[in-house]
Amino acid sequence: MKDGFVKVAACAPALKVGDPHYNAEQMRLAIADARVQGIRVLVFPELSLTGYTAGDLFFNASLLTAAEDALASLAVATKDSGMLVAVGVPVSVHGRLYNCAAMLAEGRLLGLVPKSNLPDGLGTDECRYFTPAPAENLTVTYAGASVLLGCKQLFTCKTLPALSVAAELCEDLWVCQPPAAAHATAGATLILNLSADAEIIGKAERRRTLIKALSAHTIAAYLYANAGLGESTGDAVFAGTALLCENGSLICEKAAFASEPMLIGEIDVSHLLSARARRNTYPAPTGDYTEVAFSLPVSETQLTAPVKKYPFLPSPAAMQERCELILSIQSQGLAARISRAHATGGVLGLSGGLDSTLALLVAVRATDLLSLPRTAITAVTMPCFGTTARTRGNAEKLAEALGVTLRTVDIHAAVTQHFADIGHDASVKNAVYENSQARERTQILMDVANAENALVIGTGDLSELALGWATYNGDHMSMYGVNAGIPKTLVRALTEHAAKRAASSGDSVLAAILTDILDTPVSPELLPPEDGKIAQCTEELVGPYSLHDFFLYHFVSNGFSPKKILRLATLAFADEFSPEVIRRWLLTFLRRFFTQQFKRACLPEGPKVGTVSLSPRGDFRMPSDASFALWISELENE
Predict the structure, then answer these.
(1) Is the pLDDT of residue 525 over 80?
(2) Residue 115 annotated among the catalytic residues of the structure
């Protein structure tokens, strides 16, 4: 359970209706199998100890007694299992019969959670047999234990306090006030749904949609186990489906009538607590739930699900739609800003690199939205000491292909004069040498914009802002930064999308230009080229952007610790980088992220695109002089 990860499972073993001891034996076998696989929470379907379809046999004392005895033996079987187990069982107490989830751990019965709403339909008539849950928890004696019977119970792990489990029986999927909401408000991070839901046409899609929505609404993990093989098929058929969702995302799913009885997946309960804290609208617990404590072994959960390498990118199937949406957000934002500033267009520095290319593509879309001629956008190339023929050529060809106004302002003489003015030796290629070029370019852009009543369009991206890879009051500054919410991996994906779109529309010239830009190494081109080629490769200096975007997402969006980020990155990039290399660049990320906050504190405005934004106005606030010692020491001592 290291780093908050917990391995959970849902199981629908083959059972026999009316034979609790046989069913308990199947569950014991499943528990033994789950133990070997390191599972910490295991849930079985509704009334799985007797069979959901037992009908009027629920009135028979022999069945109820056998179920109670079988549950007592099953509780003992959990003693050395190292897991919390939820079992569906009919419970007869105080002259009433309840449809319950029995919560077992450490060789004992922890509590009984009854069903509140009783359905009538599809071959079921629970009102005929069972009593709805009492309004408040009751103390009852069952299976040799004195426990609470009631819905207001929270089963909390002492060895991993972030794991708080609540159970309900099928109701979430059909009542207008799902119990999951109350459970999550009380503090549950994992909700178990013991269900017996007959399989009919369209049910699977509806079930999946509802469970994903419930997990998102409650910011919880949601584990669903449905009745399956062995249930009576007299009036309905049960398919043994199972689903695991976390905060709106489907982690894994067991299809209807699958031969494998168990669904296994990992959840991150610590992340859920962090997400709730960041939401800051999550209601405080009402205090009417009773916490029941139990312990699980403290061990490292072996993660089997692949870790997403590029968290800012959607799935390939969703890529086209997502890219179009992002480009629309950027261009609509820029169009509105140009219009409301009563500007006549935009000015941007076009280097022939990825960021300025994307900014120009967005600017062209904005002029189209405003019904302005594309010549209202002025792309300025400003060659100097580090400019290569390749990037300058691509900039010129791109401007021509898109039909914008192109201006070339050679800044060699201006920067050389500036060196003389401040007494800098041009042979010393330090920060003064590099930043003087960036600031000269920004001055030109600002002045051209003033002359043309236009806005300077910023080209810097989110990854560069995170690392502080920008010259303060140089390329760091603009009048509207269209790429401020776009990380480098997404910049590349958007440019690739534009290239494919151009190719599919028959514009082979534009497609070829964009493809060559994509193949060009990322560089600020502030140092002289070597043999005509780029000498200053950004990723050799600050590290691979694929790694930095991974670090950025999990540090800012998820609030993960450096140790956890390192662990996940090691899994995600196992085919590319060694753990030592990943650790080195993570240290670089942390140092730069903290020390460069002062650049983000005065960031120009720009459209927010995804969940991660570093805008100081409403998204990320941090003192510019905050210490990074805590985070660095954690990683260095790992």
Answers:
(1) no
(2) yes
